[in-house]
Amino acid sequence: MSADPSVKKLLEVIKKPGNNVCADCGERIVRDDKDENQACHGNRANWSSYNLGVFLCVPCASVHRKLGVHISKVTSVQLDRWNEDQVEFMEVNGNLKAKEKYELDVPVSYRRPMLPSDPEVVREQWIRGKYERQEFVNVNLQKYRTKEMEGVMWKKLRDKQNFMERRFVLSETDYTLKYYNRADAKEPKAVIDLGKLHVAFCPDKVGNPNGMQLYFEQKGGEIRNIFVYTDTGKEIIDWYNAIRHMKYNRLMVAFPGGLCQEEITKILNKGDIIKEGWLHKTGSKGNEAFRKRWVILTHKRITYYETPLDDVCKKSVVLGTNLSEYKCIEGVPPGKLEQGFSFTVRVPGRDFFFSAETGTERKNWMTAINKEIGVVNE
Fold first, then answer.
1. Residue 231 CA neighbour count, 13 Å, CB half
2. What does the alpha-carbon distance between residue 192 and residue 295 come to, in Å, rounded to a whole number?
3. Could you identify which of 176, 299, 351, 375 might form a hypothetical disulfide with 370, taking C-beta atoms 3.0 to 4.6 angstroms apart as the criterion?
4. 305 — phi, psi (to 5°)?
5. Residue range 31-82, pLDDT digits in tens
């Protein structure tokens, strides 16, 4: 441990309850008492904002730097110099007091950063909302806490790769999302039932940090995708959280006795994309050439496409939890064409044959699919 008494004291302050996780995303930043220099390891924080009195992980500290020193003064716990007043401020305040101050009224439905894989826009807008806009202490600043929302998003044209501005209207009254091809159009181009609509961030696919995927099941069982983005991160977060807020309100009507936070989060996060990427797939007979397909795993469902930005899937496979009927098995049955690192997804009445590029990739896909089926992986 450093000989600097200020650093020694700070490293003790970090170990206190609440300070041992990042103030913004909750990532654990102190593991145990055995490692005296643990605050330097990986993403585990050796960072803080000394004017806000919080300890941070590396990714969240990076966002704090964007806020400017008039809002957050980011400092290394061990590499920068600390005076006694600064150390005392950190000790007196800390993460729990900051939470009480800046998270006074966070909607239950609001999406906070929870995982390292969360898009940067989720982390950044959460932090900006807390400290820059301070919208969680003033409900009037929470645009997404509404019964109707209207605005413009850039939408990918169907069967094309370019995006055009479209007017969207979100309504809790009729529980729909509508979009219009022209700003002055009286009739919507499409009306989507919010009960069927799912939303997921997809910055890499859209090629924009504010990219989002709206998807829903059509009458024939196919999944229809609508890809959008907005000019600012705040706009896409407002749209995302407005949809979640309306879904939350409907949940409260359906379950008047109330649900716990964990149950609510689990239901609202069902639209998340669990895993996606390129795989190869052969037909149901198992004797045709393997073709490259973009495969997406969401809650209890596998869908596959010719390209990542396809508007409609080629096939949607619903995953159940009856382990005698639903399986994900390494390899393919005898007599079927095998290529690379193959695996079989079995559902009632049909087998689906996939192939990954590497053994690790196959293992990761099988683990994720088996988790949705209900298999406990060792």
1. 5
2. 24
3. 375
4. -140, 165
5. 554 444 444 444 444 799 999 999 999 999 999 999 999 999 999 988 888 9
